[in-house]
Automatic annotation (TrEMBL):
Residues 1-297 form the DNA-directed DNA polymerase X domain. InterPro entries: DNA-dir_DNA_pol_X, DNA_pol_lamdba_lyase_dom_sf, HHH_MUS81, Hlx-hairpin-Hlx_DNA-bd_motif, NT_sf, PHP_phosphatase, Pol/His_phosphatase_N, Pol/histidinol_Pase-like. The lineage of its organism: Bacteria, Pseudomonadati, Bacteroidota, Sphingobacteriia, Sphingobacteriales. Residues 321-401 form the Polymerase/histidinol phosphatase N-terminal domain. Residues 50-69, 90-109, 125-144 form the Helix-hairpin-helix DNA-binding motif class domain. It holds the Pfam family HHH_5. The keyword Signal does not apply. Keywords: DNA replication, DNA synthesis. It comes from the Bacteria. This is Helix-hairpin-helix domain-containing protein.
Amino acid sequence: MENKPIARTLRLLSQLMELHEANPFKIKSVANAAFKLDKLPFPIAGKKLDELEKIDGIGKSIAGKVAELLKTGTMAELQEMLDKTPAGVVEMMGIKGIGPKKVAIIWKELGIENTGELFYACNENRLIEAKGFGLKTQEEIRKAIEFRMASNGKFLFAQVEKEANELMDEVKAIFPDALKHFAGEFRRLNEIITEIVIVIGSLNQDVAYNALANSKILCNVSKNKNHIQGELQNGLLVDIVCVDKADYYRELFINTGTDDHVQAVFDRINTPVEQPESEEMIYTKAGLAWMQPELREGTLFIEKAEKNELPTLINWHDLKGTLHNHSTWSDGVNSIEEMALYCRDTLKLEYLGMCDHSKSAFYAKGLSIERVLQQHEEIDALNKKLDGFHIFKGIESDILYDGSLDYPEEILKKFDFIVASVHSILKMDEEKATSRLITAIENPYTTILGHPTGRLLLSRGGYPINYKKVIDACAANKVVIEINANPLRLDLDWRWHQYALDKGVMLSINPDAHRIEGFTDMHYGILVARKGGLYKEMCMNAMSLPEITKAFAKKRG
């Protein structure tokens, strides 16, 4: 065994000792030994115990640990430390900018146990609440995590949207008169992007290559037949396909849909489509209505296209209000009034649903019963003050382990609506997670089921649930399901939207905003809702103020 792996193991041991507040002198001696071993000009593998003890900075105790490691490949003390530390917490110690002391605060005070939860907390501005953290540190940690997330070649749609559009602007400048469009995952509005594909109706490939080779946006540019390939500054792969104008729409169609979607459409065409004049022509020849790119995942919407029953997909202008938002009363950055004015004056919405955290969310300054009543007084005063706008009294009530909500009935009935969400004890099997959610859904005060699986994209899988049972329970109890619009969540997954809609379950595009900038996340909620085939008639926050007021009253009644 080389010295470096041994030094790394000792360094990890010292970090875990510091995390668990072991003897400071012992921590320092192990860390110092790790440093010394890393710098030794000779290998220590094969040396006897007495030889190890004589090495400067090692000593008898650490020599014994090193000998144990050389002999067995591990250390009992290290394994003991690892056994009482969540794997995600160990992973967090590898993030640039935070050492064991900060990780201990993040874990023990904020209840964060992995990198995904930490990234989400940075986006929610929660880190600055902890001792020793400021805005600068929080931003540095967020950027370091983004860099780590990007290293696996997968990106959130929200992470690449700006750069992709800038690349398209360059392509438009190079080919002002050519046909050009995004294809692939980006055009289908996938929540996870592994490659940006652009199809250009021009065979003047050399012009494109020479221009893009000197681009400030694209790196490592190369040519491969009619493809120009490279990557964005963040490492995302790019494939630009140059084809003859006559073949453009066929290639755009082929490069946009998933393979099984494209094949399903072509299988319905009796005569070959050589050079279609539009994508619409391809669908027409297949006996189908034209399908929006975001619906071209597999064959889910093929039958609806055949019957000309495709939904008119929801858009930003359909939204009349925003539900599930947090203010300075819990872990938000802006006051209720600031959020209301932004929604009314900038977003031109009709209503705002406040849903600060409930009392169980101590880490997020969850509201005690007394503070709930105080907040309601403030909302009443604001509603008298604000013209042409209404603030609804909501709460994001924690679903406890037994499925109950964390306020007594006399408090629950004081809210206009309730978003019920799981925030704690996320390690559950499917049976437990499903029954926990269904119990909450059956609570007569639950209006909306919040982020149903608790997933954090690219960092934490959601707890397993039986989707059909949960959705069926929502249908039976007239409970709306949230599409949490935070780009890290996008939960309920779009793959289950149609099942919910077919069961008569309404969805709600909720930003889960913790600051006024967070309202813009509804953009990503709309994109993923369109993938799932959502239309305004089945979106709760597409209701007008009178309609949603009536709906809330009916649910409470």
